[in-house]
UniProtKB/TrEMBL annotation:
Residues 416-601 form the Glycoside Hydrolase 20C C-terminal domain. One of its GO terms (molecular function) is hexosaminidase activity. It holds the Pfam family Glyco_H_20C_C. This is Beta-N-acetylhexosaminidase. Signal peptide: none annotated.
Length: 629
C-alpha cells in the first residue's frame, strides 16, 4: 500500500504504518490531504476515487479517519463527533507473554486505524528498573532503550503510551528474590511503610517520569485483599486494611506530585469495604464529596468490569462512583484459555459503552489480560478492539467490524469468530456468554484421574466428532487467509482441535475397556494414547511458531512444560497399562477410583465446569507448595 501526502506529520506516521503493518486493501495507493483544525470541531473525511481529504486536530485522528475512509466503502464522506473523548487499550505483558517490539508496533498501528487515543502497558515487573537488577530478571523485561523506542513510536502515531504498573500488590514474581524480603507483606503484597518499599516505589515513579512522554501513570493497587495480614501483622500488629491502603495511597500520590505525574488506580479495594465478603460489585450508596476528600486530590479512579451483560448493570455500578473522576475499563476476553471469547466481549462492549455514554464517562480502557499463561495470541482480538472503536462514535454491531478485520487482519470477522467454536461444543452450541473453556479443561485434564470430561458431555463420540470437523475447518480456512501470522494461528488451532478430538476418543476407549478389564480394548487405547502424544507434539511445534512471532522467548518455557506434560502423561499411562497387561501390576488405582460429579467452579447450569487455571485443571494433587506469607 502506498500513501502519498505532503503533510510532514502525517507523512512520517504513514511511513511507520507501511513499515510495521500490512494493509489488505483493495486499492494499491491513496493520495491523502489533511486540514488541521481545532480539537473541538467535528472530524471529517471525504473520498473521491483514490483521493482522501481529512479534517482533524491530531495524527491519531487522521489515521482513524483514513481507516474509516478505507472501510466505509458505501460512503464518500462522513462527519464524526466522538461520544467518548479517549479510548485506550491495555496490553498485559506480565503473564509470560512479553510482546516483541515489532509485534507491539504493528498493534499500535492497528489501534491508530481503529480510533484509539492511548495504549497502556501493564507491566508488573517486566521493565528494566535502574538500581534493581533482579526486578524482572529472566522475565523478558523491556530494557530502558526498548521502553523509549516504544514511546517514540507511539508518539509518531499520535498515541499516548501510558505505564500501568503495580505499586502494592500483584508483585509475586518480583517478591521472590532475596533483596525484596524486607519489603514483603505477603507473597503478593509489599510492606506498607517500610523504607525499602518507599524507595522502590519512588524509583518506579521517577523512572517513568523520564522514560515515557505521558504525564499519566497507572499505579495498580488492585486485589490487595491480603493487605496487612502477613509480615505486616507480625511486625506491626493488626491494623484495618483500609487505613493501610489510604496511608500508602497518599504517600505514593505524593511521589507522583513530586515527579509531575497524574496518578490513577484500579478502584476495587476502595469499594470492597462496603461488602461483608469484600465483593467488588455491590449495592453501596454513591461516593459523597466527604468520602472523596479522604483520597488524594490528584487521583483518578478506574472502575473495571468484564462480567456484567446489561447496560443497567453498568450504570448501577457507575452510579456507585458518585462524584469520583472515573475511567471505565472493559475488556476483550483473551485470558484464561487458548481462544478469544468474542461473543461475550461483543455483548459486554455494547452494554458498557452505552452506559458510559449515558453516564458521561469520557475515557474507556479496553483491557487485554493474559491470566494463566496468556495462551491466546494477541492477533486474535482484532474484532473486539474494532467494535470498541466503532462504538466510540455511535451505535454498532459486531458485523460492522468485518471491513476492519479484512483491512488490518487479512480475513473476515467470521474467521476470528470461528475460534470460539473450540468452546461452543454440541452440549452448549450457543454464544459463550459465560466464557467457559472446555477446550482447556480437556487439553490439560488428566485422562486417568479424570475430573472434567463426564461433566462436559455425556456423548463423548459426538464431542470428538465436533473437534475433528473443527480441525478440518481450520485447515481449510488457513489456506484462504491473506495474513501469514493469522495462517500460523489457524494451523495452531487446527492442531489443538485434532488433539481434543483424539483426547476424547482415547479417554472414551480407555475407560470403557478398563471397566471390562478388556486387554484388547486397552491395547487399542494405548495406540490412541501414543497417537495423541504425537499430535500433542505437533501442537507444541505450532504453538512455538505462533509464540515466536508475537513474544520474547522468556515465558514460552511454561507452555513447553504444559504441552510436554500432555505428551509425557500419555506415554506414562501407556507404560502403566503395559505393566498391568503384563501382570506386573495388579491394578491401576488411578483408573479404579469412581468418578464423582464435578464439584469445583460451576457454570450457571450448576453442572458444567466453569473457568479454572492450569494448576486446578491438570491434577487434583499438589502441583507445588507455596507459603501464603
Amino acid at each position: 500500500m502506498i500513501f502519498t501526502t505532503h503533510d510532514p506529520k502525517l507523512k512520517a506516521a504513514l511511513a511507520e504504518v507501511c513499515r510495521q503493518m500490512p494493509l489488505y486493501a483493495s486499492e494499491t495507493s491513496l493520495q491523502v490531504t489533511v486540514h488541521w483544525q481545532e480539537s473541538d470541531a467535528p472530524l471529517c473525511w471525504q473520498r473521491t476515487g483514490d483521493t482522501v481529504t481529512l479534517a482533524c486536530a491530531s495524527v491519531h485522528d487522521a489515521l482513524m479517519l483514513l481507516g474509516r475512509a478505507m472501510t466505509q466503502r458505501d460512503k464518500t464522506t462522513e462527519k464524526l463527533i466522538p461520544r467518548v473523548a479517549e479510548l485506550a487499550a491495555m496490553l498485559d505483558v506480565s503473564r509470560n507473554s512479553v510482546y516483541t517490539l515489532p509485534m507491539l508496533k504493528r498493534f499500535l498501528c492497528q489501534l491508530a486505524f481503529l480510533g484509539y487515543t492511548a495504549c497502556y502497558l501493564y507491566m508488573e515487573d517486566t521493565y528494566e528498573l535502574p538500581g534493581y537488577p533482579y526486578f524482572g530478571y529472566r522475565r523478558g523485561r523491556y530494557s530502558v532503550a526498548e521502553q523509549k523506542e516504544l514511546d517514540d513510536f507511539a508518539c509518531s502515531l499520535g498515541i499516548e503510551l501510558i505505564p500501568c504498573i503495580q505499586t502494592l500488590a500483584h508483585l509475586r514474581t518480583a517478591i521472590r528474590w532475596q533483596y525484596m524480603q524486607p519489603m514483603r507483606d505477603t507473597v503478593d503484597n509489599l510492606m506498607v511503610g517500610e523504607p525499602g518499599t518507599l524507595a522502590l516505589v519512588e524509583a518506579m515513579i521517577a523512572h517513568f517520569s523520564k522514560t515515557f512522554r505521558s504525564r499519566r501513570i497507572h499505579l495498580g493497587m488492585d486485589e490487595a485483599v491480603g493487605l496487612g495480614t502477613g509480615r505486616y501483622r507480625l511486625y506491626k500488629g493488626w491494623r484495618d486494611h483500609r487505613e493501610i491502603l489510604l496511608e500508602h495511597l497518599n504517600t505514593v500520590c505524593g511521589l507522583c506530585d513530586k515527579y509531575g505525574l497524574q496518578p490513577m488506580i484500579w478502584d476495587d479495594m476502595l469499594f470492597r469495604d462496603h461488602t461483608p465478603l469484600m465483593e467488588y460489585y455491590g449495592d453501596s450508596a454513591p461516593v459523597t464529596e466527604e468520602e472523596k476528600a479522604q483520597y488524594p486530590a490528584n487521583l483518578r479512579f478506574v472502575y473495571w468490569d468484564y462480567y456484567h451483560d446489561t447496560q443497567e448493570d453498568y450504570e448501577k455500578q457507575l452510579r456507585r462512583r458518585g462524584c469520583l473522576d472515573v475511567t471505565f475499563a472493559g475488556g476483550v476476553w483473551k485470558w484464561g484459555g487458548w481462544a478469544p471469547c468474542l461473543s461475550k466481549s461483543f455483548q459486554d462492549a455494547i452494554a458498557a459503552t452505552e452506559a458510559c455514554c449515558r453516564m458521561g464517562v469520557q475515557e474507556i480502557l479496553v483491557t487485554l489480560w493474559g491470566d494463566d499463561g496468556d495462551e491466546t495470541p494477541l492477533a486474535t482480538v482484532l474484532p473486539g478492539l474494532a467494535l470498541y472503536g466503532l462504538l466510540r462514535f455511535g451505535s454498532a454491531v459486531p458485523a460492522q467490524t468485518d471491513p476492519y478485520c479484512r483491512l488490518l487482519g487479512g480475513a473476515p470477522v467470521s474467521v476470528y469468530e470461528s475460534m470460539e467454536q473450540l468452546d461452543r461444543i454440541p452440549d452448549r452450541p450457543d454464544a459463550n456468554l459465560e466464557a467457559l473453556i472446555p477446550h482447556k479443561l480437556l487439553l490439560y485434564g488428566d485422562m486417568a484421574s479424570e475430573l472434567f470430561l463426564p461433566a462436559i458431555t455425556q456423548d463423548v463420540p459426538r464431542l470428538a466428532a465436533h473437534y475433528q470437523e473443527l480441525a478440518a475447518q481450520y485447515e481449510k480456512t488457513a489456506n484462504t487467509v491473506g495474513d501469514e501470522h493469522l495462517q500460523q494461528i489457524l494451523k495452531m488451532y487446527q492442531a489443538l482441535a485434532a488433539v481434543l478430538a483424539l483426547r476424547c476418543r482415547a479417554a472414551d476407549r480407555l475407560h470403557k475397556a478398563w471397566q471390562k478389564r478388556d486387554c484388547h480394548g486397552l491395547r487399542a487405547a494405548c495406540e490412541l494414547l501414543e497417537q495423541l502424544a504425537r499430535e500433542a507434539e505437533t501442537l507444541h511445534t505450532a504453538t512455538v511458531a505462533v509464540w515466536s512471532r508475537e513474544c520474547k522467548g522468556q515465558g514460552l518455557e511454561v507452555l513447553d512444560l504444559r504441552l510436554g506434560g500432555v505428551s509425557g502423561r500419555c506415554r506414562a499411562l501407556c507404560q502403566r497399562l503395559a505393566l498391568y497387561m503384563a501382570g506386573k501390576l495388579d491394578t491401576l488405582t488411578e483408573l479404579d477410583e469412581p468418578y464423582l460429579p464435578y464439584s469445583g467452579l460451576l457454570a450457571e447450569d450448576g453442572r458444567t465446569p466453569a473457568r479454572e487455571a492450569y494448576g486446578e485443571i491438570v491434577t487434583a494433587n499438589t502441583l507445588c507448595h507455596q507459603f501464603s506469607i
